């Protein structure tokens, strides 16, 4: 089975997705972990913003390697810096803003959210600009914008 092997992925390498405000690398895919989790390295610019959203079945654990990232939760706003960690269980709304250029590791459990990145990569600019098309793709991959 694929998840029964050792995997070593160096910094800033792995299957990558280069967007304007985030260069993301899949460090361990859901396929490689037997569906248990996905580990993503995000390299964020200060233009990075995620609107308020939630994941119905996925939890997320964020570890900030360098920089500063703001998380707006239902009851508070937290700013994380290098060495800080935030765990968000399923069904907890949150928004994310990069304050200083940042490197962040994100653990998604169970795995599979990187499949949303794959879906984005296949969309045309016109599809990405279509709110209904974008929403349909995101909901399919357990990301619900509020």
Give the gist of this structure:
The protein is an alpha+beta fold. It has one domain (10-113): Sandwich (Jelly Rolls).
Task: Write up what this structure looks like.
By secondary structure, the chain is of the alpha+beta class. The protein has a single domain, classed as Jelly Rolls (Sandwich). 16% of the residues lie in helices and 45% in strands. It has three helices and nine strands; from the N terminus they run ββββββββαααβ. Strands 1, 2, 3, 4, 5, 6, 7, 8 and 9 form a nine-stranded antiparallel β-sheet that branches. The mean pLDDT is 94.
| Relevant CATH superfamily | Jelly Rolls
CATH architecture: Sandwich
Helical stretch count? 3
User: Which structural class best describes the helix and strand composition?
Assistant: alpha+beta
Q: From N to C, what is the helix and strand string?
A: EEEEEEEEHHHE
Shape: globular
For the largest beta-sheet, the strand count, sense and barrel status come to: 9 strands, antiparallel
Q: How many domains make up the coordinates?
A: 1
At the fold tier of CATH, the topology name is Jelly Rolls
Spans of at least 5 consecutive residues whose pLDDT stays below 50 are none
Please tally the β strands and state the result.
Answer: 9
- Tell me the name of the CATH class: Mainly Beta
Radius of gyration: 15 Å
- Average per-residue pLDDT, rounded, comes to 94
Helix content percent band: 10-25%
Give the distance, in angstroms, between the N- and C-terminal Cα atoms: 38 Å
Strand content: over 45%
């Amino acid at each position: 089975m694929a998840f029964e092997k050792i995997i070593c992925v160096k910094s800033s390498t792995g299957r990558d997705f280069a967007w304007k405000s985030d260069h993301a690398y899949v460090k361990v895919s859901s396929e490689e972990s037997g569906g248990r989790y996905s580990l993503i390295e995000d390299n964020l610019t200060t233009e990075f913003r995620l609107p308020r959203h939630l994941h119905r079945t996925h939890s997320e654990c964020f570890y900030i390697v360098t920089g500063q990232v703001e998380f707006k939760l239902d009851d508070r706003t937290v700013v994380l810096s290098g060495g800080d960690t935030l765990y968000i269980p399923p069904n907890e709304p949150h928004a994310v803003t990069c304050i200083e250029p940042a490197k962040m590791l994100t653990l998604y459990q169970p795995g599979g959210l990187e499949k949303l990145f794959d879906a984005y990569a296949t969309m045309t600019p016109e599809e990405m600009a279509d709110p209904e098309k974008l929403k349909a793709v995101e909901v399919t991959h357990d990301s619900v914008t509020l």
